[in-house]
Amino acid sequence: MWSRLVAWIIERSLRRTFRRVCWVGAWPTLPEAKPVVLYANHHSFYDGYLLWYLARHHLGRATVTWMEDWDRFPFFAALGALPFPRGDAVRRAATVRRTARRLRTHPGTAFIYFPEGLLHPPEDGLAPFSSLPLERLARLLPPCTWWPVALHVTWWGESHPTALLAGGTPHDALAGDEWERLNAVWHALRSTRPAETTLLLEGRSSPQETWNLSLLKHLFERHP
After folding, report:
1. Measured CA angle at 38 (ends 128, 200), to 5 deg
2. Which CATH class is domain 2-220?
């Protein structure tokens, strides 16, 4: 029951916030029986929602993610959120162990991970992050596919923004260049309006798409 309710809340929020959610570029080829660590930039409040929707509805995967404010919104646990409170090393370590255990027992899971470690404006660019935390994490997790995914929220002349997502090349081992991989995908996503996209979610239409008050024009033709 809780999972359905929280999923409904997320999807309703996405539909009310965005005009559309689109995937840009080729669709990835991911191994079905292997966990995926989906590492992404974090420039929007809705990033976690968008990545959950991508994983659940278009990759067919359950998700795990770490949530700093989990204590305030514990119902997100129904969709795989685990507590990761700032300044609490004991609970963070427990969450890392639970994540590793879940990926081992449910290899079709996607682990949504924000390596920047904070939500910040896109004008700041991609915050630098070291490969050392990723390497320590990789030693604790079962063998995974690592996949850089970029998110970008933009305006296409409508009353609601469009959310764009794109992925880089999945890789089976860390090479120390994960920041460069993610940064390249993010910059490519922001550089120009994509010519071709795949619609992931239809959102709220703009007034200019739905309103037509032309029947009133005769009332205003002679209006001073």
Report:
1. 115
2. alpha beta
